[in-house]
Design brief:
globular; single chain; about 65% helix; three-stranded antiparallel β-sheet
């Protein structure tokens, strides 16, 4: 690629990922509006539906969110009565996040969202799996490299 083309917007991996993520997230919006939650709240609930009663730090690692982003998000979900934050009995420094009955009950209402979203894409189920795996690998590779750089 020519040097001048390297700085063209359409040649940037970061912009292609950013634009795609924004458009895919928009596909979720009407379904999440029905539940009264945002996309970030949705992925947080997905993580908790998968594994409940987790330390805030573990949840942050799972979602790739720092405490400055995660704390207000959890506070909002707690205000919506979807989860509770409680100090760990064994380690007062740790805060455990637990779903409430309302938070667990929302899972049934959210069950159809993935299929409803994927029906709006042109991807086959195999394409979705392949793309998701490529993105997971890229995320892991970038995260590992980021950790290596910060540790040196």
């Amino acid at each position: 690629m020519e040097k001048s083309a390297q700085l063209e917007l359409d040649n940037q991996l970061c912009f292609a990922l950013y634009a795609c993520a924004r458009e895919v997230t928009k596909l979720y919006r009407p379904f999440l509006d029905e539940l009264g939650i945002t996309y970030t709240q949705y992925v947080t609930l997905l993580a908790l539906w998968e594994k409940d009663e987790v330390p805030v730090k573990e949840l942050g690692r799972r979602l790739y969110l720092d405490s400055g982003t995660l704390t207000p998000l959890l506070k909002k979900l707690e205000g919506m009565k979807l989860l509770r934050r409680e100090r760990d009995q064994q380690d007062e420094r740790s805060v455990i996040v637990r779903l409430t009955d309302e938070g667990r009950g929302l899972k049934d209402r959210a069950a159809a969202i993935p299929e409803r979203v994927f029906c709006q894409t042109s991807l086959s189920p195999g394409d979705i799996v392949s793309l998701r795996e490529q993105l997971r690998k890229l995320t892991a590779d970038v995260h590992a490299r980021d950790c290596d750089v910060s540790e040196s």
